[in-house]
# Entry
Amino acid sequence: MDRSDKAIAVALCTILFAFAIIDIRITAVVYGTRSLDIFLPLKNLPEIMILLMTSGVFAIICSAIGAAGFVKNNKKIFLVFIVAACANSILQVVGFKAALSTDVLSDAFDLLKRLRNLYDPSEPNVQRMWDDMQERLHCCGFFGPAEWGTNYPDSCCVDGNCSTQNAYKDGCLSVAEFYFSFLVNAVLAGFSAAITFLQLILCVFAYKELRQDVNEYIRF
# Structure
């Protein structure tokens, strides 16, 4: 392998490592949002996010194996990398396909709507769920803070003592849409596709080196 190809391959391994870290971080954020009491009934989402996080961890491992193989020009490491990267690419595709097949946003909307209809200051469990969601997602009300009139819950603001001036401007529905629609369908889709593409490109580099070695042995 000449120096230019080696430099390109190692650079792609570095990019793969960075993309995998970002992918894991985004997946963890979505998983953490789902841990709110209101979103616990969402089906399949925890398993899908764990699958994608696992795939991200394997992508990090693949990037390290690939970089070691290209730096050392070791054929055995190339073979291990090809097997691991191809398997992880399949895992990425399966995880993302499962994420797209679940109507998470619609289910989250139904849960929020139900919680809104149940709201009663005299019901501590419902009030706790609202407060927990508003504090952690930095949102206020279903569509926005105007729903609370002038009697804002303290959870609608960073430091309590809420007013029109310091209440969170976004409604919890739009914030949930960001987490469960934009992050899952757009951001995770992009990173999953990029990780899969990078792994397959690196597999081509590794296979090229293995094939060249076999051809040289045959000619010998």
In short: The helical segments are 3-34, 45-72, 75-101, 104-118, 124-137, 172-219.
